[in-house]
Design a protein that fits this description.
With 204 residues, the protein is of the alpha/beta class. It is 39% helix and 16% strand. The chain has one domain: 3-Layer(aba) Sandwich (Rossmann fold), CATH 3.40.50.150. Helix 2 packs parallel to helix 6. The longest helix has 17 residues. 37% of the residues are buried.
Length: 204
């Protein structure tokens, strides 16, 4: 399966994963550095994030690297169980935690341990005990079937070559009547074989 996907995508998947982790570890560890994509609180504010953003500790928001605002698709309800795919340093997770309240729950999953460490610290600062941050990959979620009411994600699915696997997993873990609120990058034209082999285009 991995071999077929590598052939289809035209890139070494292990190398791609390593480069993505490296890029986002740098966003975590050097948030003031200039990246080829916008980052930080000012960027989130430009995206018209909900007022809960103001309470999210700077230790998380400084490493925000989303592409849009998943909450523009609707506010979350009190008591909902939320999964944040590719949660990074936790900005979206912590906005979600405030919306769902202590009767709800938010689980963030990310493959970059440096980002997860920031998310956990920021959750502690904000005092939201109903959050959990898990290291893992979005193509193979370590959660039971039908365990979430809402799946959110921000600028992550575009980084994953096997998008069918991601959406299959989203469908599996969503409870009946559940919904997705995804902010991401899309393309309107096919990408050339040369473009698919360009790791910089995948990671940025």
């Amino acid at each position: 399966m991995a071999d077929a996907l590598e052939e289809e995508v035209g890139i070494d998947l292990a190398l791609l994963k390593s480069e993505i982790q490296k890029t986002y570890a740098a966003v975590s560890q050097e948030p003031d550095r200039d990246f080829i994509f916008p980052t930080g609180r000012g960027w989130a504010e430009d995206l018209d994030y909900p007022p809960e953003l103001g309470n999210v500790p700077e230790s998380a928001v400084e490493s925000f690297a989303g592409v849009a605002n998943p909450f523009s698709l609707g506010r979350l309800a009190t008591g909902e169980r939320v999964l944040d795919l590719g949660c990074g340093a936790g900005t979206d997770s912590l906005v979600a935690a405030q919306m769902v309240g202590a009767s709800g729950s938010v689980t963030g999953i990310d493959m970059t341990s440096a980002m997860l460490a920031k998310a956990r610290r920021a959750a502690g600062e904000l005092g939201v005990a109903h959050t959990d941050f898990v290291e893992g990959e979005v193509e193979s979620l370590p959660f039971p079937d039908e365990s979430f009411d809402v799946v959110i994600s921000n600028g992550v699915i575009d980084l994953v070559p096997d998008k069918d696997a991601v959406f299959s997993e989203i469908y599996r873990v969503l409870a009946p009547g559940g919904r997705i609120q995804i902010a991401d990058v899309t393309i309107q034209n096919p990408v050339s074989a040369e473009g698919r082999r360009n790791i910089d285009l995948w990671t940025g």
